[in-house]
């Protein structure tokens, strides 16, 4: 056999081997058929921009934009691509200390609405109120952001300013200039009510330290002679499911707390080992009680460990995971829905209270808390 034929056979074998290797890798990565075509389209466009665009381009920015576009195409207000600064802000927020104005927001009907205003924060000082609609941040309409991006743009370094255009019912739109401050969030605070034996713990959100703070307040109330407990989850937008579960383990009787169900049907069960509920419980919720708040309220309601008082909750029954990427950026992605012990998924529906009590701006007293006290007194 001639050298030319041997060389040709070697070349054909190498090409065939490479082709089979590539096809094998593509199969392992799930890139058959249309997916392969889409991948070729993507890299083809990227390469054309890099080589033919009229000025030089930054390849990293192209990838950032591509990832951002993919996530936005989901149409999910809770899934978001976070660049370095936004990812850093999110980590600081869940750690319990961050530069901001002290408000939490809800996203419904294409609106960004203030759900709660923390005491002693810049937001409270300038007069922001629950129910205010945020129209723009630093002159940029919120419609140009993904919903979850709005909070990231409001946060920033302490001492810097942010401008918010606020729409309030029955008032002209007004721009507020607010100086950011370090928001050190103690998310659980407790007290005995009216020198009685009824304990009260307000949980403002579920951060990394919330479970420890709740236990600290719970233990103080026990030492003070508590005989029953009211847990206030109103205007609580949620937070870390792990923190919520740790609190639930102190309150929910033995059995399921919540089930997290992914697209493929796989389930992650969170259970309580508590042999018996120690005290009579009443839980307060409202339309701004969301996510982890609804997990706790739903578990206590389904197991009949507590009476739920207030108004129907927000209805956020989806679970997000935050994934760090390779440039100090991150991806927040909805990966599952959660189900209460009775098998209910309240995403988009909310939790109906056992006793409905509405509040209005004209009310001069907290009728929901008064009803909770009345119900708890009957249990003692």
From TrEMBL:
Pfam families: CtpB_N-like (PF22694), PDZ_2 (PF13180), Peptidase_S41 (PF03572)
SUPFAM superfamilies: ClpP/crotonase, PDZ domain-like
EC class name: hydrolase
Family per record: Belongs to the peptidase S41A family.
Name of the protein in its database record: Putative carboxy-terminal-processing protease
PANTHER family, sorted: CARBOXY-TERMINAL PROCESSING PROTEASE CTPA (PTHR32060:SF30), TAIL-SPECIFIC PROTEASE (PTHR32060)
SMART domains: PDZ, TSPc
The enzyme's E.C. designation: 3.4.21.102
CC terms in the record's Gene Ontology section: outer membrane-bounded periplasmic space
Protein species of origin: Selenomonas ruminantium subsp. lactilytica (strain NBRC 103574 / TAM6421)
Domain PDZ stretches: 87-170
Transmembrane segments: 6-26
């Amino acid at each position: 056999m001639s050298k030319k034929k041997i060389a040709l056979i070697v070349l054909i074998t190498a090409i065939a081997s490479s082709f089979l290797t590539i096809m094998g890798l593509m199969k392992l990565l799930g890139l058959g058929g249309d997916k392969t075509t889409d991948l070729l389209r993507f890299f083809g466009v990227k390469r054309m921009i890099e080589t033919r665009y009229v000025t030089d381009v930054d390849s990293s920015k192209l990838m950032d934009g591509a990832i951002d576009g993919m996530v936005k195409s989901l149409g999910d207000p809770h899934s978001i691509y976070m660049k370095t600064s936004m990812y850093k802000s999110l980590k600081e927020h869940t750690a319990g200390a961050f530069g901001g104005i002290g408000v939490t927001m809800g996203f419904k009907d294409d609106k960004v609405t203030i759900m709660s205003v923390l005491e002693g924060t810049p937001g409270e000082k300038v007069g922001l109120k629950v129910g205010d609609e945020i129209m723009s941040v630093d002159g940029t309409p919120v419609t140009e952001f993904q919903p979850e991006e709005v909070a990231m743009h409001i946060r920033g370094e302490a001492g810097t300013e942010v401008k918010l255009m606020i729409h309030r019912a029955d008032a002209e739109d007004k721009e507020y200039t607010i100086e950011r401050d370090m928001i050190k969030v103690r998310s659980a605070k407790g007290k005995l009510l009216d020198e009685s034996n009824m304990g009260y713990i307000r949980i403002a959100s579920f951060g990394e330290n919330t479970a420890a703070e709740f236990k600290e307040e719970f233990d103080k109330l026990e030492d003070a002679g508590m005989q029953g407990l009211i847990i206030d989850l109103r205007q609580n937008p949620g937070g870390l499911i792990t923190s919520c579960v740790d609190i639930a383990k102190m309150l929910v009787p033995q059995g399921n707390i919540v089930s997290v169900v992914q697209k493929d049907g796989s389930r992650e069960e969170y259970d309580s080992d508590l042999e018996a509920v120690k005290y009579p419980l009443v839980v307060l919720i409202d339309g701004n009680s969301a996510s982890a708040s609804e997990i706790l309220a739903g578990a206590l309601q389904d197991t009949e460990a507590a009476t739920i008082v207030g108004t129907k909750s927000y209805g956020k029954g989806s679970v997000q995971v935050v994934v760090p990427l390779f440039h100090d950026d991150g991806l927040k992605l909805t990966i599952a829905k959660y189900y209460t012990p009775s098998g209910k998924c309240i995403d988009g529906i909310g939790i109906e209270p056992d006793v409905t009590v509405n509040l209005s701006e004209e009310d001069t007293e907290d009728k929901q808390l008064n009803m909770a006290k009345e119900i708890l007194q009957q249990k003692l």
